[in-house]
Structures are given as C-alpha cells and as structure tokens.
Amino acid sequence: MSSTNKKLINYIKNKPDVYEKSTSAFWDDENISKYMLEEHINPESEGATRNHKFIKKSADWISGLLGDTKNKKLLDLGCGPGIYDELFYKNGFNVTGIDFSKRSIEYAKKHAKEKGINIKYHYKNYLDIDYEEKFDIAVLIYCDFGVLPPKDREVILTKARKALKQGGLLILDGFIKKFIDDFEEKEIIEYNKYGFWSWKEHVCIQRNHIYQDTLNTLEQYLVVTEEDIECYNIWNQVFTKESIVSEIKNSGFENIDLYDDVAGKPYSGKDKTICVVAGK
Fold first, then answer.
1. Where do the domains of the chain lie, and which CATH numbers do they carry?
2. pLDDT digits (tens, 9 = 90+) for 93-117
C-alpha cells in the first residue's frame, strides 16, 4: 500500500482532535491565495471577506466609535488585501495592516501606492506582533478570533491590549448559536482537473463535523493528488455571550459592549455573529 493510501485511510477513519492543525499552509499557499485574493476583491463575494457594501457600512461604524479620527492610529489584524484599510484611511485613521498572506499584502501595498494612500502593511503572523501603547483601535474581524485555538486567542488578546493606548478599543467578532444550528455535517467528494485547492489534477474530500462538547465546527478538506495528500482543517469556535465576554475580560479588557455584527446592529443574540467592543 502506498504512503498516500495509508494517509487517506487514517484521515477517513479518524475524527480530528479539536483544533488539530492542517498539514500545509492555507492563507499563504501559492495557489489558494490566488483564489482567495480574487474573492477578496470581488465586491459581491463573501467567500473571503464580507461584501464591499457591508464593509463600507462596517468601516464607517467602527470609525465613528472614536468620534474624531484625526491623528488616531488603527491596527488591522488580518487585513487581507486592504479593503477595510483604505476605507479607514479615508475616514482619517493612520492605518497599520498585518496579514500572513504574502499575496494579499503585496496587492495591498501595490494598490495603496497606485492610489497615493499611505498605509503601513506588514507580511507577518499577527500572533507575533509586539507593539506597546501605540494604537487607538485594533480590529480582528470576519470571525477570525474563533479560527484560533484557545491558547492563541489568549495570545492575541494579550498582545492587542498591549498594543492599545490607555482608553483604546478592541473590536472583534465571532460566531454564536445560530451558526452551529445552520452548520451541516456532510461528506462531499469532488474531482477537479485544477482549482482552488491545487493547480494539479486532484480529488477533494470535504468533511464537516460538529463538536457539541466544545462548540466547535470543522470543515476538513482532504486534497489528493497523484503524489500526495494534504489536509486542511478550518476550525471555528462557536461562542455564547458569556464565553466570549469571559475570554476578553480575562485578558484585562473592560467596558464591554455587544452588537450583532461589526456594523453596529443592536445586540439580539439571534444573528449568526456577535461583535464585541472592548476598552482598555
């Protein structure tokens, strides 16, 4: 039996442990990042970020949280190709964007230069930031917070708080109960000559799992080529109001306000998401 066949059998017979890592990079994969960038810059798509109409509404609401944005500094954690950041810049912020997709950062830098926009973009893992009392607002949005395992969530909360000036705000969002209620456990097998997961001929096996004990969901993609198999595990944490507030308070944040989304929709708890605005 080939090593690829053995790997496939092991993947299929075992349900992954919660937050088990992927075998390869996702955001920085040469092929996948090309498709992700296309989704980012498509104004109608919600495959990589929210549609651009919502993003405009969201950026305006976030900007309004401080009232006066003149000379205020904003840190965007997971900035992608800078769709949000250019709007923040237009709204008066001094913007710094961090992302682990080299392709997205290169696009953001090029686009900003073409438009004469002065935004600082850095290609790095936002878990590695080391700012101290530099920013007035930090944002971590499109539910990126719940993609991280608990220990990494502690790290980013601690580092985001350290990066904020006294009185600064952290804005983040995550999924809540309606998301897991609508999440479908399923298995799909699909052949592709080439596509999102690989530029080579491949078979993609998608397996969706729900972990009720820990309120996690997993979209697992097994990508089988002639040479090998890669496993991409895309995790989400589903929060309760109490659990997300507890994590944020435990990192030292105060004055926590809740909304249904990152455009300021009043909190009802009936949406798929919850947005937290927390003060240092």
1. 3-24+179-237 (no CATH), 42-175+239-279 (3.40.50.150)
2. 999 999 999 999 999 999 999 999 9
